[in-house]
Amino acid sequence: MRLQHISVMFVMIFIPIILVTSYFISLQVNTVKLESEYTEKLLDATYDAMTAFELNTANEDLSTVSDSLRSIIDASNNIFLNTLCTNLGVSNASKSYIQPYIPAILYTLYDGYYIYSPTNIPEICVDTYGRTIRTNDLGVKYLETVSGVGIYEFSKDNLEYASDNPEDYSLKPGLSEDEYGGKLKGPQEEYGQVLYKNNNGSFSTTLHSWGGAKTSATYQKSTYYKRDYILKSYIPYSATYSVGNKNLTINFTLDNFMTIEGKIDNVYYTKSGYFIDSGLVQQIKVSGGGVSETITSSNWMNVSEEHFDEMIYAPETYNVTVTLTGGITISNRDGAVDINNPSGPGTVTQYWDDAQSAVQYYVDSFMFSQWIYANLGTIKAEDLKNAQYSVTDIQKTVLDSITKDTAGNDIQTNLYRDMLYNFEGDKTCPFSSTNNNPESEESIFYKHKRNVIKNSITYNLILSMLVYTEESRTVEFNMPSFKETEWNQILNNVSITAFMEGMRCGLKYYNNYAIVTSTNNEITVTENEIYYVPRVRTESGKKYLNNIDDNEALDTDYKIAHRIDCDDLDLIGTYGAISFKAKEVKYDKILDNSGKFIYDHKVYTDYDCIVDSNYTVGSGTDGNTDVLGYLTAHVSEPGITEKLQAYRIAIAKERNNLYKTTAFVDDYGWQVIFLGDSVSSGTKKGAGTTSVDVNLSSLSIKELKHIKKIEVTIEGMKIEDASGKQIYGVYTDAIKASFGTKVYDKEQTISTTSSSRRTLEFEQDFSDGNAATLTLKTTNQNTQFTVEAVKVYYK
Amino acid sequence: MSDSLITIVAIFLAAILMFIFPLMSIAERSDDISQLTVQSAVTDFVDTAKSTGRITLDEYDKLVNKIEATGNTYDVEIEVKVLDENVGKKSAWTQGQVIGENNYYSVYTSQIMNYMASMEGEGDGVYTMKEGDIISVSVKNNNKTLSQTIRGIFYSISGNGTYQIAAQSSGLVTSNGTSR
């Protein structure tokens, strides 16, 4: 064979092979290309959703209120779908085209999260105009009763309207109860209820599911569920702990704030606050106004949290100083300025309210944390009792009940189970006071909280995914397991995670998600949002913030940016210790000379002012992620103490002023002792005072220093003369309360001529003694009354 | 006879293998590069527009210059979805100021161009948008690129929507634009 033959043969054989291979490779290339395009578009859409969220929270003063937040998230959702549709080349009108490819969108917020996902919802019976139809309306016909559930039929043609006027849609009044019983003969308890649609088009008053094949009569009479995309209820980052006599629910947040609700030893507690390191606040000292006291971790029980409130906000009388670890002190008098003469001594002083907020934060956190160490110090991670934290429970309940999708394929429930952290056997104590700094990501508390939040989110996402997979028109959607770095992104701040699935993408189906974390919103405070701003003095004596161009509006005379006026800080040279949240500069509300706020002037501080970037320069790279860790580790270096103080004040006042939806107004525990009519004042008449001894043997905590307030409910008050005859007229008497030798300072003066029930309050801090017996003493020996109940409030 | 026929076939095949295939491949690579250039130019344009809240003739010209430097001609379609004060959904919490709950109406390339051209003085050549508007830009080539031509020799592609280079970008406008 000649060379030509061989070459032609070669070409004839290999060209088709090469063509087919190259076609296949180009398909693969296109798939990858398409996939990356989808990912980019998904990320774009998620980013836009976050932008909308941030803008909406910035523009809305009530953005932290949950109802308002819900509408903001709904809106952000719309933007997400809108952008995704635009990016994919379908008009925004066809939102419903894209929706089936979105199994879930997760919004993690400060103290909980929302999931937007398809959900099965029942359909309510309505007429042409969308009004709810009830069992007694004309047009409803009773058919039969199956297993106690009434089955009804409704025909729009049989509805009767009040008039023939087409503008007047009001229904004719339905059947009365008697007529209904006579005509419909349905179950008698079913009168006037809302009707839900069944699979076969009939209606029932209850939601019920009867098994069987889809064609079976019982299945057909079961409630019909349609699938719709809704923003599900807000789910807090909560966990329930139950061990011994403790039964508590704790709501965590993205930072160290938490709320606690539940029973310890029959005392019902509601508490909220920031959980801080046991060594952070070393002492709280109050002086001035005739008060002189020092509170430390050894005598914190002697005072209640509210004890300091009024003093902190009255700096002209009281000086409340908090000493933090590392010798940092913060006083409610910090930053005081003489408003008439800023550069010299004067008589009229304006106090800086941020210092007061910061002091309040540390006082409250200290008292709250001490309470936690004392009461929750023994709770272990394994005491968690929520279903989603027990892998065994999950096995028993949810996951195993759904094992196959509609196509008959196995759903890999084992995979899902592995995604959850198993708390069983975890003996660590997240609320311990030793080696536990809740502000640090390395602490036991933080790791535990992270596992709780991760499990809660994963569990609820899995449920959403299962609903989606059950009726998915394309392929089974496997809930992806997030990497640790992605969890960091999700749990670091408010974030949006959008899932997209099932879209045809070259040779396969697209299955991915995008996470976008907020950098600037109204509902969290993170370390990275705190700025240092250098300051300079101008010749006129006014102080301006430096490094912000064209920014006279931030003149501190108008108190726009917050400021510590501490001359020592000038020693550092470059940095003054002015600190405020980034947001306040970005979305600044500027007060102009006429007293109005201007909103649309946007300025940005120098990038070098952001706290964490401050420490990279010349100090290695270790300052970049953990600001607090860096500051505390380098506290011996010049200037760091001042920066640490500024940081402590800034983060404290921002957090203190943040509105928290889950916080309780009152932080206390309470227990009620019902005494019935058993304790009455005696029949002693004659000389001296009358006293009633109330035996409080059933109180859970008897130490007086734990008690902050008591309420005594009395009734049947009357005055009798020596012969036992009741005296009428207008009289008052004063009642004193005492525990043993401890007498409450304030006595209650009440009318003795009304026998109706009333409550007396006694409030005072006692540092020792116990509360076995309460004595109530009247001045008039002829006064009589009965003690009904005693409510004891604990600190 | 048969030898010379085979030789002719061999030469023909050799010509295809040695010239047409490499040419096709190079042409396609050059389209890929154009695609990248166009995509980044469009993304830049949209990013600038959405962060400044304005579309300017300058920026538009820059975009057109950049993409036409690839040697092809393009259709540039700009669509601005303008946030309307009217809310789209009826519920107790719906508000006109919340981005995402409102209706949008669209303004397209020719309207935007006419607007920019019609303004005199301060607002000359500037189309302003506001916070919450959505801008989307899509670019497609309208000539036949080299690779399309070569492919046309082997198999023909018909229809209007045949384009080789396409880029699209869109985003939420984050600030209120000014005409200065």
Structure notes:
- The complex is a heterodimer of chains A (795) and B (180).
- With 795 residues, chain A is an alpha+beta fold.
- Among the domains of chain A are: 140-223, no CATH class; 276-376, no CATH class; 527-657, no CATH class; 668-794, Jelly Rolls.
- Chain A contains 15 helices and 34 strands.
- In chain A, strands 1, 2, 7, 8, 9, 10, 11, 18, 19, 26, 28, 32 and 34 form a 13-stranded antiparallel beta sheet that branches.
- Chain A is flat.
- Chain B is an alpha+beta fold and 180 residues long.
- Chain B has one domain (2-172).
- Helices cover 46% and strands 23% of the residues of chain B.
- Chain B contains 4 helices and 6 strands; from the N terminus they run H-E-H-E-E-H-E-E-H-E.
- A 4-stranded antiparallel beta sheet of chain B has the order 3-2-5-6.
- The longest helix of chain B is centred in the first third of the chain and has 51 residues, at 2-52.
- The radius of gyration of chain B is 24 Å and the shape is elongated.
- The N and C termini of chain B lie far apart (80 Å).
- Chain A binds chain B through residues 2, 4-5, 7-8, 11, 15, 44, 47-48, 51-52, 55-56, 59-60, 67-68, 70-72, 74-79, 82-83, 86-87, 89, 92, 600, 602, and chain B through 3, 6-7, 9-10, 13-14, 17, 81, 91, 93-95, 97-101, 104, 131-132, 134, 136, 138, 168-172, 174-176.
How are the elements arranged and paired?
The complex is a heterodimer of chains A (795) and B (180).
Chain A lengths: L2 H57 L6 H22 L7 H4 L6 E4 L3 E11 L17 E7 L2 E6 L22 H7 L12 E2 L5 E2 L12 H4 L4 E7 L3 E9 L2 E7 L4 E8 L2 E8 L6 E8 L2 E5 L13 H4 L6 E6 L3 E4 L5 E2 L10 E2 L2 H24 L14 H6 L1 H4 L11 H7 L24 H27 L13 H9 L2 E11 L2 E10 L12 E4 L1 E3 L5 E3 L32 E4 H5 L3 E2 L5 E2 L28 H7 L6 H18 L10 E13 L9 E6 L11 E13 L12 E8 L2 E2 L4 E4 L6 E6 L9 E6 L4 E12 L1
Antiparallel strand pairs in A: 1-2, 1-18, 2-7, 2-8, 3-4, 5-6, 8-9, 9-10, 10-11, 11-26, 12-13, 12-14, 14-15, 16-17, 18-19, 20-23, 21-22, 24-25, 26-34, 27-33, 28-32, 28-34, 29-30, 29-31, 29-33
Helix pairs in contact in A: 1-2, 7-15
Chain B lengths: L1 H51 L1 E3 H12 L5 E14 L14 E7 H10 L7 E3 L5 E8 L4 H9 L11 E7 L8
Antiparallel strand pairs in B: 1-4, 2-3, 2-5, 5-6
Helix pairs in contact in B: 1-2, 1-4
